[in-house]
Amino acid sequence: MNLSSTNVHRPGTIRSSAGPRSTRPKAPAVRARKLVPFAFVSPTLALITLLTVVPILMVAGYSFMDNVIVEPNPVFVGFANYVKVLSDPTFLTALGNTFVFITLSTVVHLVLGLAFALLLNTPLLGNVTKAIFRVIYILPWLFTIAVIAIVWRLMLDPSGVVNYLLGTFGIQGADWLSTPETALGSVTFINIWSGYPFFMISLLAALQGVPTVLHEAARVDGAGWWQRFLYVTLPHIRPVIISMAVLDLIWTSQQFALIWMTTGGGPLNATEVVSTYTYKQAFSNFDFSTASAAAVIVLLLTMALAFFYVRQQKVRD
């Protein structure tokens, strides 16, 4: 017998004449599996594209043309609309008012929010007292902008509650929302009052996340309250403070409803901000080209703030 011509099998083994079978999935199956996550997010992407990306591109295109929307044949004018906006004294006034409005609002939001958060986080108050104060402090955050604007317009009226209370102390009142010297400060105060609870809640959560062991160790080493706050509490909540500050700058820079419902940008452009300027150019003057250019400028400024916010979030993570 010729052993070389016979198939010799070891016990327990099976020899296949077809050769080894490949276990790797086929290329179409791999591609289909990779496309599954995109199928899940495709409705959201389509909605964002339709409601956000397309309008932004349309407004950006309008900013380089003249006689858009109102005329069937718009004319390409390049950067002429941007030059017109940036050389408009009203826009420059609105830009300055916006800077003052968002800077004061953000700084005072931070100070008040941190102060109230420290008060609600102190062990000197009982749980019932803290609960009562939390309800009181968070009330401004529960009202809508329309309610806040109407209530404060009534309170700041020349014959309103604020002037009445000032008169009881012998202080002369004012027409707070109709006087150029006091209008911007009054609107900023209203915005501060309505927005500080968001800072308070966020910073309170950050304070409660600071390890108590660190405070106890610092107390044993002889550190006082201010030293513990400066070297223990503040470093732990600094990422939250920076993130909240940048986010508040973005939100406040887009504030429109509060100013429009209280002063409408007046008197004499004293409370004119970029958002009200853009609205007036589009729907009062029907100059959609100029309004588009102003909107693109606001978009660029907001994108710069958003870039710093996303970068800060990455550093925080």
TrEMBL record:
- GO biological process, alphabetically ordered: transmembrane transport
Q: Name one GO cellular component term.
A: plasma membrane
Highest taxon in the source lineage: Bacteria
Instruction: Give the ABC transmembrane type-1 domain ranges.
Output: 95-309
A Pfam family name for this chain? BPD_transp_1
* Stretches for region Disordered: 1-26
Against SUPFAM superfamilies, the record matches this protein to:
MetI-like
Instruction: Name its cellular compartments.
Output: Cell membrane
Q: Where is the composition biased (Polar residues)?
A: 1-20
Instruction: State the membrane topology.
Output: Multi-pass membrane protein
Q: Which stretches are transmembrane?
A: 35-64, 99-120, 132-155, 196-217, 229-251, 288-310
Please name the InterPro entries in this protein's record. MetI-like (IPR000515), MetI-like_sf (IPR035906)
Which keywords describe this protein according to UniProt?
Answer: Cell membrane, Membrane, Transmembrane, Transmembrane helix, Transport
Regarding protein family, the annotation reads:
Belongs to the binding-protein-dependent transport system permease family.
- Which protein are we looking at? Sugar ABC transporter permease
